[in-house]
Design a protein that fits this description.
The protein is mainly alpha-helical and 72 residues long. It has a domain of 27 residues. It contains two helices and no strands. The longest helix has 33 residues. The radius of gyration is 31 Å and the shape is elongated.
Amino acid sequence: MRTTIATLIATIVTTTTAFAANGAGTDEPGLLAWGFLGFCAVILVGQFVPAAMLLVGMVKGIVAAPKEVKNH
């Protein structure tokens, strides 16, 4: 039991250095990352177009003169 605990502690202590940063993640993003960001930008622009059309329609409805309503 004591040997198992000592082995487990020794394994944990020696493996913690594997999680240290080695600078491998400091390179610039690749083509796939830029493509993903571009796809997200296309989706955002695609959402802004209908929103702008709706906003223009609301402003026209507010600014326009009210029409007469005929009662039957």
